[in-house]
Amino acid sequence: MDIPQILQFVDEAVYASTGKHLNDLQRRIIAGILKRQKYADVSETYGYSAQHVKKVSHELLQMLSDVFGEQVKKSNLESVLERQINVNITFGTKNNRHKNIIGIGSINSCPASSTPTSEKTEPVTTDFQQQSNNQIKIETIDKLRKFGLSDEQIAEALEIPLDVLNQVD
Length: 169
Known about the structure:
By secondary structure, the chain is mainly α. The model is unreliable at 89-106 and 113-125 (pLDDT under 50). The chain has helices spanning 3-18, 24-34, 39-46, 50-68, 77-86, 127-146, 151-158, 162-166. The chain contains eight helices and no strands.
């Protein structure tokens, strides 16, 4: 995933949890962290004081910790986002856009094109990605069964037909 896609993912996760979108500085801080920039570089590039960027960054990382349910620091932001992007299943949220998201991705902090695009691009699904998606669904089904969910609940949550789910042993 490229940084604009990551920012959109984080913004949607934050919005689903807090009802608020990321502001410009928060987006710039996340992008800066993923590009391994220092806060001083971010502040200089965008015209903020270094102290203000540090303060907003601290608040942002705390908010992301709350949103993702694990401690998020500057040093582990990339790995937290990779985990959240790779398998992100949300059940029964108020916002249906975030219901039952299962995805695969890796973070590309140095995209080939640095030109931002305003239009959303749909990911190309290869056979490998499809097999990986299927494997993740199988593993997810097994986990959900261990948590005591019925096959009917799992089928509804993952939006797959019950007869397909019943084929998974």
